Each structure stands twice: as structure tokens, then as C-alpha cells.
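Field log, afternoon session.

UNIT: design team B
ACTIVITY: writing a sequence onto a fixed backbone
BACKBONE:
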């Protein structure tokens, strides 16, 4: 998450379809038989937040290793490059830096012209400037956790072919530098007359909240996204977090770059609630403090929602007037 300055300690914040994987009934939540692998969630997150990547600061060798890892994941799961390659070069950064962008074409002749964007930022803040025992800001929660969730959703759609709309899977660089990756990408997409339906950006979902809902959404009142996600999952998946509104988190992550250009429902989803994680932008934001069962359950619970978003005959998620 892009740095925030608060007066609180640590608070900153093409194959045949698989009919057995998805059973669709528009009157009730989709039944998903596909199971997210806890082991795969763990292995993916463990590497992305490892010391080898040296905190994934944009423009460094560490984040370049992360880029190769993400490219290989897309290749392995038959997600095609959206551009000539998976690497989308940032136009607003003084060193070579790349978003990683893949696409899965929709299965419906008409709906495939519309795009859903599932995204997270894979950069973090790198190494500490002062000498100390642990100098690596691994960024397990911020935002290797979100990248892991998007990657597992990409694998799910690749396996099930259950998306009638096309899906753009984006891992942003430069988020910690001021949303640079998303700002760069949206300008290219706008020039292409990119037909965006909605964007779900995933931020910091590595630990659970002690609340009666799974996650919160930024800009809760800006659209009916929270209402529709809850309808699609049949659960109280999304709730309203007052701190989100107080700190205006809608404007502080990569969803805002897309909203600013396209004026469509573009929002971030998180389980970091300012009470459950004290290591924001801290060297202790490491794999060992992540709750893998929670992350796996989070991804699993969202599958009916992202599936319905990618398949409804009309655009049901809309901006509030």
C-alpha cells in the first residue's frame, strides 16, 4: 500500500470449459467445486516475500527477479501476454521498471469485448537505509499477499474457462513510488479505448480481521460493489470499515488510477484494518507472520464473486449517483 502518514504507531498503510468446476444459477450464489490449494498459496507467497528478492523495490534487481517469477507463473497457467510480452514498461519512472500484465480472453462472443481487471502491486520498499540486523522489507502482507490472491484467481479461471468477459490480470510496479505503474498503464489502455467493466484491486489480505465480515472495500459508498459481492457469495463477505473512509484509502492504491481515468467501479479489497497488523512498512512484514489458512479461505470465498462478475449478462456493478 502506498505510504500514508498517520499519527498512529505502525499505521500507514483454448480449452473446453470444465463443467464440474462451476454450477451457475442466477438466483443463488454459484457453487464452486474448484479448491484453492493451501500449499500453492504458501509456496507462492513464501518466494515472493523471500530475502532473495530484497524487498522488491521498483527499479532493482530484486523486483526483476519477482517479475520473472510472475511471468513464469502466467506461462505455466496459459495466461497470455496482453502486450507483446508480459512486461509493460513504466513511462513515468527513471529506471527500467515493468508492470506484469496477462490476459484471459472471455468465452462469450459479445461479453469478451468487456474487461474485468484483477490486480495487485508486486513492488515494495526494498532495503533499509541504516545498518541493522534485518535490512530487508519483505512486504509479505504489503502486497505479496494480494499478488498471491490474484495469481490464484488467474489459475482458477485458466483451469475452468468460466469467464465470459475477458480478464486482465495486472501486477503493478511503482505503487510505493506514487501509484506509478497503474498511472502509466491506464494511459495506454485509454488510448486503446479499453472497454473496462470493473476493477478489483487486492491489498494486504495476509491476516484476518476480528469482525463479522471477511474484508472491507475502499470507497464503500461509491458503487454497489460491496452489495453485489455479498449477493454473489451469499455471505457477509464485504463490510464497511470506518477507518477506510477516515483515511480516504480509495485514493491511496492502484484502483484510484483506473477510476480517475475510466470513472468505472474500481476499488480495493483488504483485510488490514489498522488493528490486526503492526508491521506496515516494517522489516517484520515477513512470510512467517502471514495466516495461510486465512488467505486460502479468502481466495476461495471470492471465487463465486469474481466468477459472477465475469459472467453476468449485464454490467450489474455500477457507480452510485
Amino acid at each position: 500500500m502506498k505510504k500514508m502518514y498517520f499519527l498512529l504507531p505502525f499505521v500507514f498503510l483454448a480449452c473446453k470449459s470444465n463443467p464440474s468446476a462451476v454450477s451457475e444459477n442466477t438466483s443463488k450464489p454459484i457453487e464452486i467445486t474448484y479448491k484453492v490449494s493451501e500449499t500453492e498459496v504458501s509456496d507462492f507467497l513464501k518466494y515472493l516475500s523471500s530475502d532473495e528478492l530484497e524487498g522488491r523495490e521498483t527499479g532493482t534487481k530484486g523486483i526483476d527477479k519477482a517479475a520473472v517469477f510472475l511471468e513464469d507463473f502466467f506461462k505455466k497457467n496459459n495466461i497470455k501476454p496482453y502486450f507483446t510480452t508480459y512486461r509493460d514498461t513504466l513511462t513515468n519512472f527513471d529506471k527500467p521498471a515493468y508492470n506484469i500484465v496477462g490476459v484471459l480472453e472471455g468465452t462469450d462472443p459479445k461479453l469478451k469485448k468487456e474487461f474485468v481487471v484483477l490486480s495487485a502491486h508486486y513492488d515494495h520498499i526494498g532495503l533499509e537505509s541504516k545498518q541493522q540486523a534485518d535490512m530487508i522489507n519483505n512486504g509479505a502482507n504489503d502486497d505479496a499477499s494480494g499478488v498471491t490472491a490474484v495469481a490464484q484467481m488467474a489459475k482458477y479461471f485458466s483451469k475452468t474457462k468460466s469467464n465470459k468477459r475477458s480478464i486482465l490480470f495486472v501486477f503493478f510496479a511503482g505503487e510505493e513510488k506514487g501509484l506509478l505503474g497503474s498511472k502509466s498503464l491506464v494511459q495506454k489502455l485509454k488510448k486503446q479505448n479499453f472497454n473496462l467493466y470493473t476493477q478489483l484491486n487486492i491489498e494486504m489480505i495476509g491476516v484476518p480481521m476480528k469482525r463479522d465480515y471477511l474484508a472491507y472495500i475502499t470507497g464503500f459508498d461509491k458503487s454497489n460493489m460491496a452489495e453485489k459481492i455479498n449477493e454473489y457469495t451469499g455471505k457477509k463477505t464485504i463490510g464497511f470499515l470506518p477507518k477506510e473512509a477516515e483515511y480516504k484509502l480509495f485514493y491511496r492504491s492502484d484502483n484510484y488510477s483506473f477510476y480517475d481515468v475510466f470513472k468505472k467501479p474500481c476499488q480495493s479489497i483488504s483485510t488490514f484494518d489498522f488493528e490486526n497488523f503492526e508491521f506496515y512498512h516494517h522489516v517484520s512484514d515477513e512470510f512467517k507472520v502471514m495466516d495461510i489458512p486465512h488467505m486460502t479461505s479468502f481466495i476461495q470465498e471470492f471465487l463465486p464473486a469474481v466468477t459472477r462478475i465475469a459472467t453476468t449478462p449485464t454490467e450489474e456493478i455500477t457507480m452510485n449517483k
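LOG NOTE: The first strand starts at residue 22 and ends at 23.
NEXT ACTIVITY: expression trials, pending approval
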